[in-house]
Structures
1.
Amino acid sequence: MIGAKAIPVLVEYLADVSHGLYSRVSAANGLEKIANPHPEARNECLGILVDQLERISENDRTLNGFLISRLDRHPKAGGNAGYSEGFRGQISSQATASATPRL
């Protein structure tokens, strides 16, 4: 089982854009895996996911989707159940803007 001692390494890995998308998703999964059985580390781990998601415009859209799905499993992560809804709206806006042909 992965424990709280791994948090700093996972944070650094998740934030480093030189790592591949799915490697970073694995780091986010690791943080969630720590949060579940370790209530003393739960808020820290979920806060890290929220912090990474707040870089929504810098993140890959797929990474944002994975972060939202992790946070949706923990409705109180953002202080209220609708926290990730705002991020979903931003992702939707980005997708629409990137799909709109430029003339």
2.
Amino acid sequence: MKQQVILNKETYSKPQYERTINTSFTQLGVTTQADAPVLPTVDEFFQYYTELFYQIPKEGAINSHQYLVEQSSTYVGQQQQLEEQRAQRRAEVAKRAEGLGSLEDIYGYGP
């Protein structure tokens, strides 16, 4: 059973295209750069923090000085742990390199 399908291709000149076709993606609900929130710079953040310091509650699960201290402490603690791990690895590498040097002295060859 054959069916004939008729396709109609509509073409536009550039001016007609610009007037007819919506190229802004507004129909998809995509926000534009202008709609995106503008985040403060680090300097602006600390300026706002200084201005709001006494308005921020001392304690609370969120939006408090306690929350900021806990979050910062966690971050700083992780950084310190990484530095300690790096120092331990450097010490291990130095110890192994020292061991390789003594093997070279004993056997007369090395890396």
3.
Amino acid sequence: MCVTLGKKLGFVLVGIEGKDFVDKNRKLILALVWQACKYHLLHILKTIGNTNYVDETTIKNWANQMVGTNNQTLFDFFFIINFICTDPSGQQEVQRDG
């Protein structure tokens, strides 16, 4: 049932079957749960933003705008810290030493 619903929602479920849930395959269950969380988050952002389209690029661009950088990966530790420490007006950010 979970796999069928996931496929209807457009999740990538290569190699995942209902048997994996019965066998408690944590890695494959987590793959489905992660995609469900991502789907839910994108749905919330579409609703809040009154738009029909939100994707990872839209989120990345918004986050870069908030921090005032053009970081392409969003995996940089300093980017994350700056994002957390930046107030909505974009006035405060952590300074990188060195």
